[in-house]
Amino acid sequence: MTELMTAAQMRATEEAAIAAGRTTGLALMERAGRAVVAAVFQRWPALSEGAHAALVLCGPGNNGGDGFVIARRLRDLGWAVTVQIFGDAARLPPDARRMHDLWAASGPVAPLGPCEGGVDLVVDALFGTGLTRPLPQAVAEAVARPSRGGDQVQRVAVDAPSGLNLDTGAIPGGQGVFLADLTVTFHTAKPGHYLGAGPAVCGQLVCADIGLGGSGGNLAGSPPAAGSLRLAEPVTADTGPGLRVFPGAAIAKLAATGHKYDFGHAVVLAGGVGRGGAGRLAARAALRAGAGLVTMLCPPAALQENAARMDAVMLRACRDAEAFEALVDDRVTALCLGPGLGVGERTRSLVAAVCARRAGARAGRDPAVVLDADALTSFAPAPDALFALLHPRCILTPHEGEFGRLFPDLALSARAGMSKVEAVRHAAARAGCVVLLKGADTVIARPDGAASLHAAVYDRAVPWLATAGAGDVLAGLIAGLAAPASAPELICVAEAAAWLHVEAARAFGPGLIAEDLPDMLPEVFRRVAG
Ligand SMILES: NC(=O)C1=CN([C@@H]2O[C@H](COP(=O)(O)OP(=O)(O)OC[C@H]3O[C@@H](n4cnc5c(N)ncnc54)[C@H](O)[C@@H]3O)[C@@H](O)[C@H]2O)[C@@H](O)CC1
Ligand SMILES: Nc1ncnc2c1ncn2[C@@H]1O[C@H](COP(=O)(O)OP(=O)(O)O)[C@@H](O)[C@H]1O
Ligand SMILES: [K+]
């Protein structure tokens, strides 16, 4: 797992390394520029042979400095290089100024404008982590300008496509952004490479080591640290063959042995007649995920319909919150409610009853509670009434619509300038439990600000997961993974569930419907166990 650094954290890391005498700004810039050239040659081997033509666009800060290094390096390799600058070279920061002067000793620098002659490569070194506001008009025009050379022109962005905010993944001001085929960032990726519009404008992402040391590799077996942000991605253990620390450590049945009750009893509360599909999807996912037992509770009138559709999942009639109390014992270790449950008072009272359950004599901790869909929407008129019921073993799994109903001030339409990561951190602190906000960029946060980003983007993009019921499966998957006695803490379970969900969708491929997801899990587990 990689720690994702904000622009400010990246600046602080660089300053600390320089202050400690481990490196210099110039050395970092030289390595950054060379790393971009190396990544270009790796992506387009034809460019590494013979001489070609490049247009290098340099900005007013250190991103521009990287551009001058790239220009010099390409020229030394025999390329014809055109360099254009936005701003005044005399006002460049010292390291960038030095790199400008090295280039300018033997090559011209022109202001931004149309480039005479065709090129094979356009390098965007206009703005990187320092972009704080929408692109100036001249830059917006320059990044949108077609380069002569047609389809053969490759476009590489240094650190970020200019116009993209690397903390938020937003393009402030709307349209102006460089559309890259390849983006080369340094030390660690930044949140904006994975959030929002980031992946679509970065093209492909490569992260280059520039010698800043320990690049934030995170212990996958342990939860993320308070206030940190990590990318949920597979990590294989140094010891032992095959088994992945992530997500393997969160899949109890891959490691432990035991009785079915050791793997926990998950309970899914489902909706009434004709509305049971969502609950059935969640229940099947919980069972496939590894819960030792799964019971579905549904209104009496829906018993028959559910009985006709399920075998391994047990079924009980549950009229209301009072009946619920009589049906669950202290061997129930995970509960999932919301999908298809209906919006209103009955759901609110079930949520209250579920959240009030505490660890019984046999369990070491409170049961995990997954609240999704209608369990969230039922509290739209009074979100604080929900927050008052929640405890740290609860997890809310909203999509953006449900999130906005509970946290109107943090809704997508209201959080201008605030990243999805910050919004989910605020939400988790307010709710007092884990919050997972869904999407191709799924963000999970704990009340102390520990956060994780699961990205189904770049080569893991699965647009066919945008299908009705996929969220119900995710809720059940979390409950099933959280049920075993040996399950890790909830934020780690949620990271693994998000990853498995997307892997199941990738394994099935286009044409996927939600029913297919639980049944793809065995194939994904076999690969994890390797
Ligand atoms: N921090 C690090 O560890 C390293 C940074 N390097 C490079 O340096 C970059 C960061 O450099 P800087 O902090 O100088 O930032 P940038 O070069 O991204 O831009 C900074 C300048 O642009 C101005 N600016 C921001 N938004 C603007 C707007 N909309 N219109 C006009 N001006 C605007 C800022 O006031 C500042 O003067 C990185 O992206 C990377 O490319 C690399 O050289 C290697 C190491
Ligand atoms: N384009 C996408 N790429 C990856 N995952 C997606 C995409 N669109 C939706 N998803 C995932 O699919 C699920 C949809 O859940 P949700 O919106 O609750 O739908 P439903 O209520 O129909 O189940 C979430 O896990 C979400 O992260
Ligand atoms: K750039």
How would you describe this structure to a colleague?
There is one protein chain. This protein is of the alpha/beta class and 530 residues long. It has 2 domains: 2-208, YjeF N-terminal domain (Rossmann fold); 229-233 and 242-529, UDP-N-acetylmuramoyl-L-alanine:D-glutamate ligase (3-Layer(aba) Sandwich). The protein is 35% helix and 16% strand. It has 18 helices and 20 strands. The protein has helices at residues 7-19, 25-43, 62-76, 94-104, 137-144, 198-202, 252-255, 277-289, 303-307, 321-327, 345-355, 373-377, 383-387, 400-406, 420-431, 470-482, 490-508, 516-529, and strands at 2-3, 53-58, 80-85, 109-111, 121-125, 154-158, 182-186, 205-208, 229-231, 235-236, 244-246, 265-269, 293-298, 314-317, 332-337, 368-371, 394-396, 434-437, 441-445, 451-455. The chain has an 11-stranded mixed beta sheet, sandwiched between helices. Helix 2 (25-43) packs across helix 3, helix 8 (277-289) packs parallel to helix 16 and helix 10 packs parallel to helix 11. The longest helix is centred in the N-terminal third of the chain and has 19 residues, at 25-43. The model has no long low-confidence stretch (mean pLDDT 94). The structure holds ligand NAX, adenosine-5'-diphosphate and potassium ion. Ligand NAX is lined by residues 10-11, 14, 28-29, 32, 59-66, 93, 127-136, 158-159, 186, 210.
